[in-house]
Design brief:
5-stranded antiparallel β-sheet; alpha+beta; about 425 residues; 15 strands; about 25% helix; Antithrombin, Chain I, domain 2
Length: about 425
């Protein structure tokens, strides 16, 4: 998040405590809830998701813990890297976790164990269906669109039917075959799916360089979120204000609210929580954490897992925060290896065998993660937030494709030849290999 990634310096507490909370508010929770949203959205139409709504479905504590732990660990690995240190950053951990969970379902042995450990355990897979069944239909005034697809290279591979069934049942995955030898059509088709499922925000995410001779499939995951604040900011009060960045003080556009929001202030961080939507009270929200006296990476590693669970004293205060718009495209390979996923990227050791078979032979294809890229963006203003993300994982097969067998089990002719024109050096007929003379 643009504002938070850059606000880890002590001077930021003087400039704004994100929650710069000019006064304590003694209002009740009902008094600070919104009167009416601005979007007035209806339930979004999900392009490729087969998971129906279920009033009994719940996000289990185990799934919640798994996703949140994965989020903190991956965010820490990314923002600690030399290329992203002190830079803006936005990702969708849920989107990435779902994408990798779909891969994990086809893995075995140590490869699967590494994936499970990084994702937060088996619950990251087992809890996915119920979580989606709750999330997609939680608030009709909030747009939340989540979709996943598998695109298998029909010129070389076929998806295993039992895997297709599991992926559809547990994740709502759309599966289809496409001829990767027509690179242009493949890229156009996959990119259009991503664009459609991110409200046309992510375009041309992949190109023909993603397709190699043994590329087996793409797993694509998309998420789109758009919601109004439950208590919108007053645009007439938006003004310029200072913001302490790693390179000094900058002037940014600050939003101001006279409403009171749930906040926490401790010696080590400031936190505020802003809610979205009006249909289901307190369901969708954004939590902002501004470390005090420590860096963002240190806060993520040392405190964030604990503070996400709450427990500190809560008060209600007014808020002043920046508007921000940001988008990034990230190669996740290094960060995922940093948090323990290594074998899945190893073209020799990877054991992802439950997804596809070589076409016409039925021989299981041993796959590995060739590339995994993530694009995400966020826009936050006085009315609300729009956020979107997509993950593309390209899996490739090992070695050469097994050829269809031709069995020489009848008499045959043979020639040993040489040179450009095939000069015959030896010639013969084999009628009975059992005879030696």
């Amino acid at each position: 998040m643009k504002s938070m990634i850059q606000s880890s310096y002590p001077s930021a507490t003087v400039v704004l405590c994100l929650v710069t909370m000019s006064f304590f508010c003694m209002q009740t929770d009902d008094e600070i809830r919104p009167k009416e949203g601005l979007l007035n959205n209806q339930t979004a139409s999900f392009i490729y998701n087969a998971i129906p709504g279920d009033e009994a479905a719940t996000i289990t504590p185990g799934y919640n813990t798994a996703i949140n732990s994965f989020a903190v660990n991956l965010l820490h690995a990314l923002c600690s890297s030399d290329s992203l240190l002190n830079k803006n950053l936005v990702i969708s951990p849920l989107n990435i976790s779902r994408n990798l969970a779909i891969v994990t379902e086809a893995a075995e042995g140590e490869t699967k164990q590494e994936l499970l450990t990084a994702l937060g355990g088996q619950e990251a897979l087992d809890g996915a269906k119920n979580a989606l069944a709750e999330l997609l239909y939680a608030d009709t005034t909030v747009i939340l669109q989540i979709a996943d697809a598998i695109w298998v290279n029909s010129s070389l591979y076929e998806l295993i039917p039992s895997y297709v069934s599991l992926a559809k049942s547990n994740y709502g995955v759309y599966s289809t075959a496409i001829d990767f030898t027509n690179k242009s059509n493949t890229v156009t088709t996959v990119n259009k799916w991503i664009e459609d499922n991110t409200a046309h925000n992510i375009k041309n995410m992949i190109n023909e360089t993603y397709i190699h001779p043994l590329t087996a499939c793409f797993i694509t995951s998309a998420i789109y979120f758009k919601a109004d604040w439950a208590s919108p900011f007053d645009i007439s009060k938006t003004t310029s204000g200072p913001f302490s960045t790693p390179r000094g003080i900058s002037s940014v556009t600050m939003m101001v609210s006279d409403e009171c929001f749930q906040t926490v202030i401790t010696d080590t961080y400031c936190n505020t929580r802003l809610y979205y939507g009006t249909d289901r009270k307190n369901y969708f929200f954004i939590d902002l954490y501004m470390p005090v006296g420590q860096s963002i990476p240190d806060f993520l590693q040392e405190q964030c897992p604990d503070v996400l669970g709450g427990g500190d004293s809560i008060a209600y205060r007014s808020v002043r925060m920046p508007k921000f718009v940001f988008e990034n495209t990230l190669d996740l390979s290094s960060a995922l290896k940093e948090i323990g996923i290594n074998l899945a990227f190893d073209a020799i050791e990877s054991k992802i065998t439950g997804m596809a078979v070589w076409k016409n032979t039925g021989v299981p294809a041993e796959l590995y993660i060739d590339t995994i890229v993530h694009c995400a963006g966020i826009r936050t203003d006085e009315e609300g937030t729009e956020a979107y993300a997509a993950t593309v994982t390209a899996l490739s097969g090992k070695g050469l494709a097994p050829a269809e067998e031709i069995i020489f089990n009848k008499p045959f002719i043979y020639f040993i030849r040489a040179g450009e024109n095939g000069l015959i050096l030896f010639a013969g007929i084999m009628n009975n290999p059992g005879e030696r003379s």
